[in-house]
Every structure is written in structure tokens, then in C-alpha cells.
Amino acid sequence: MSYRGLLDRYGDRLDVSRAVPPVTLHEGATPLIPAPRLAAAIAPGAELFLKYEGLNPTGSFKDRGMCAAVTQAVSEGATRVICASTGNTAASAAAYAARAGLGCVVLIPDGKIAMGKLAGAIAYGAKVVAIQGSFDDGLRMVRELSADGSIALVNSVNPARLQGQKTAAWEVSEDLGGPPDWLCLPVGNAGNISAYWMGFTEVDERPRLLGTQAAGAAPLVHGNPVPMPDTACTAIRIGNPARGDQALAAIRESAGHIDSCTDDEIFDLYRMVSRLEGVFCEPSSAAGLAGLRKAVASGHLEPKGRRIVAVLTGHGLKDPDSVIQGLHLPPPVPATMDALREAMGHEAMA
Length: 350
Fold this sequence. Notes:
By secondary structure, this protein is α/β, with parallel strands linked by helices. The chain has two domains: 6-59 and 161-316, Rossmann fold, CATH 3.40.50; 62-158, Rossmann fold, CATH 3.40.50.1100. It is built from 15 helices and ten strands. The strands form two sheets. Strands 1-2-10-7-8-9 form a six-stranded mixed sheet, sandwiched between helices. A four-stranded parallel sheet has the order 5-4-3-6. Helix 4 (88-100) links the parallel strand 3 and strand 4 (103-109). It is globular.
């Protein structure tokens, strides 16, 4: 087997310890999927691609940074790791800690995490602590707890996280044969957009960045923290992004744009990308696509002749309730061909 994960492929280009064997689940190398039908619907004339990060080992882009952060923690003698999470970080930290033989503690906002993500954290053996507060409260607490070095913090404030995550930018350019004109992605804690920009600029590439926040959790759009962020897009329900200043600097330097979309706008794209392209992402992942449609409609982005990459940060199975909730299946029909043809309606074969 030739591919052994990001640290095997890019380790000599990353500021991550090489003193120990990489802690890897063979993350990275995710596909860049052409999306012509979706492009025709939301960005006519563009060549649109989907960077499908949901095919990482635990189903989200977090695995890129976590392989680096946990490897670094092992090299520094850590025996436990800790993070605050809205879900994907928790699952990823738990998996990579298990891989390394470390203990793992995750803090989550009580009742505000998709069950598919919580299930992963539990399955990988993490100690899950639900707090009566927000992600921002949790991040404050884990930063304080880890300050004495007794437990390794693996949130995106850890520099190794961005070292791993920036590799996605290199993969995009390698697959396209150069950088895209625009890169569109959701913005929550703002580590991912910062990491992409770091990766692109390190190889002297400068696509324009389009970041999108949920309207109920849009501190970077409004210019102020949001004390009580409110959105059904749980992965980006963050009111005070740890990498906010870095993300805004990246958007300015790229001559890019940041905006917010309502939950209805985001969920509309969440459904469209599945039905038009057969790619199932979690709702928050579709924020970048919703932002793309809005930017095209408002004139901030001219799509014709442009190569555009939208990053889908997590797999749809991370949040299956978003599909199932409110779903009413039709009643069963008799096991006869006539009943089947009637149920199929106009699609029935004669």
C-alpha cells in the first residue's frame, strides 16, 4: 500500500514532529468531484467542483488536523487529549486518541450536537462531558484546563491542527493542475478557511476565498461576537471564532468575500447537492454552496468561465436526523405488480 496518510505524503513540508511514527488513519486524498448540474443551477457558466472531505476516516475534514495534532501530542509525551466540540472535532479527537493509545475528553454543548457525531465520540471511547453552555464556553474551559500542560488541547487553536488542514489546499491544486479562481467553504471556528489560505500562499497561489456563516451565528459578518448563536447547522454554531481575525485577514488578502445565509438557504443547498450530484453532506457543509449562490445572485461573484471549488466539510451520515426529521413514508402497498406500477405513478414501466 503506497498511501499512508498526510504525514507520510506531506510530512517534510509540515511543522509537525517527526520524532515518533505518525498517528494516522490514512486520512486525506479526498476526491474533487465535478458538479456540472449544480453549477448550472447556482453558478451558470462556472466549472464547479466539490472537495468532499466527508470521505475522511471519521467523516469530516477534522481528521487532517487531528492526525497532526495527536502526533505532535504523542511526541511531547502527552497521555491524554481534550477538546471542546460541536461534534466533528469530538469524533476525530476520540478516534485519533484511540489510535495512539491516549485518553480523550470532549466537552459538548448539552443537546446541541448531531447524534451521528456524538455516537462516534462514544464509540471511540472518549469521556464525553456535556455542559450547560455553548461551544465558546467549552473552548474557554478546555483552554484553561490545559494551560498547565497536563493534558494536550487539540482544538484548532493548536498550531498543528492547521498544519494538517492546510494539506487540503495542496490536494485541490494538484487535482486541478493549479488553484481554483474561487474557494467556497463554511466558516464556524474559522480554522479551516485560515488553513486553506496558509496552504495556498505557501505555494504562492491565491484563489479568492468565499466564506459563509449561518445567519444566526455570524460574528465575522457582523463584526461582533454572538453570545447565543442559533442555527440548525450545528457544526458552525459558534459565536466567537478562535481563528476569526486570521480568517478575516485571509479573506482580505485574497480579495474574497464573507457573508451569511439563513438556515433555509443552507438547507436548500444541502438537499440540492444530494439530488443533483449524488453527494451527501451534512447541512453545515452546504453553507459554502449557499454562499456561492447568494454571491452570484448579488453580483459579488461572476461565475462565467471560473473554476470554483466548494468544500464539503462533513459526510451526511454525521447528521442523519436532518433528513429523517419530519419524513413521512407512504404506506406499504400489496406485493403485486399492479400495486407497484400504481405507486410508481408516471415513472411506472408499461
